[in-house]
Every structure is written in structure tokens, then in C-alpha cells.
Amino acid sequence: MKKLILTACAALFCSAVQASPAADAKLSINKNNIKVWTYQDSENPIMMYKAETTLNVPIEQAVSLILDVDHAVKWVPFLGSMKVLSRDPKKGEFQLYMVLDFPFPLKDRDLVVQGKMSKDAQGIISIQNKALKKGYPLNKEYVRLTNYEGDWSFQKLGPQKVKVSTYGYANPEGSIPLSAANMFVQQQPYQMLRKMKAELSKPKAAAALPDILK
Question: What is the mean pLDDT of the chain?
């Protein structure tokens, strides 16, 4: 079976997962059929977000792109490298180690992610992710991220149409101004979904999904 695992969480700095934006969410971006809402709670100074779009491809093709670890560095923003630490295809669980390339003069980040894939009775595919505090040796060249949660969901709207939603929160750690971090939260999900659309427009056969998602 082709090596499949979640990749998109590598570039997302985001938050608590929920089915719709919070009541006080602000629609920060609405262009190119991509919407990004940002909001905050009392415990997190850094904004959370939800972003969504619709894609004119089969749901299997969209999910396959997110799961293709070998192809991720070619399109996922800020992803320097990634490797699979463990996986359990029957349970849909996996662990990843990834390095994120931050712009100079900021130090690059790394993190260990625990993820789980599932499909509900309505056919909605979900991928949930959470950073672990342990699982891989610390490297002094990087700032380790330990406060991250994120989610992807894929809802089939037709044979050639899928609704893609992503939610998240992350503390980027280190000396990053809060205003800069919050600006990143607004732009990053938009750029992620824009690049995802561009990548899916290229001719490519969809890989087979893990059995747990079929």
C-alpha cells in the first residue's frame, strides 16, 4: 500500500475544532471561493480559524492529496520535511515528525503530531491532529511546538464535487509578535486551500484510500 498519511497540518497554525465558526467569528477572507473565519477565546491570545472551499473533484482525489506524504513538500507551504514515525492502518492512527521552515530571522519549528482518520455514517471523512510533547528527540536547531490542534473534513456534494473544511489553533512559540502571528492565521489557511486547488487541477490519478476511509 502506498505510504499515506496526513500532511496538510504541517503548515497550519490553528485551533479547537467545531462544525461551524464561533458565534463571534469574523469573516476575514472571502475570495476565489475560499472563506476564512477567525475568532478567539479567553484562553488563547492567538486567533483560531476555520476555512472552507468547494472543489470540483471526487472526494477521493481531494483526500488522497492530503494523505500523500511523499508529495507534500512540493505544495504545502512552509513544510521543510516530514516523516512517518508510526501508523496503524486498521485504526486509522498515525504519528508524524515534521520540520517547518520559518522565514529569516525566525528559527525553524518542529513538532510531533498524533493523528486519526475516520469516516462517519454520512460519509464525511475527518482527519484530527494534535501535537505531542514527547515522541522524538529535541533538536536545538528548532523550536518545538507542543500546543497544536487541527482538523480536516471532507463532505461529498456530488460525483465531482467536495466541500473541504479545515480548523485549527497553534502556539508558534518563541519571540513572534502577536500581531504577526494573528496575521499569519488569517493568510495561511487561504494560501493552503489556494495551493490545494491548484495542485488538484493537475492531471493525476487518485490513490486508493485506506480501508478505514472507504
Answer: 82
pLDDT at 43 over 80: no
The CATH class for the domain spanning 8-213 reads alpha beta
CA distance to 24, 69, 70, 141, per residue, from 65 (Å): 32, 9, 10, 30
Residue 11 pLDDT > 50 = no
Tell me the pTM: 0.84
Q: State the Cα–Cα distance between residues 160 and 61, nearest whole angstrom.
A: 10
Q: What angle do CA 106, 9, 17 make, to 5 degrees?
A: 115
Instruction: Give the cell for residue 171.
Output: 502556539
Mean pLDDT value across residues 94-99: 92
Secondary structure (3-state) at 90: coil
Q: Give residue 168's pLDDT.
A: 83
The DSSP secondary-structure symbol of 204 reads: -
Q: Cell 512540493 belongs to which residue? A: 74
In terms of C-beta density within 10 A (0-12 exposed, 13-18 middle, 19 or more buried), how is residue 97 classed? middle
Name every residue whose Cβ is closer than 8 Å to that of residue 33 and which is 6 or more positions away in sequence.
53, 54
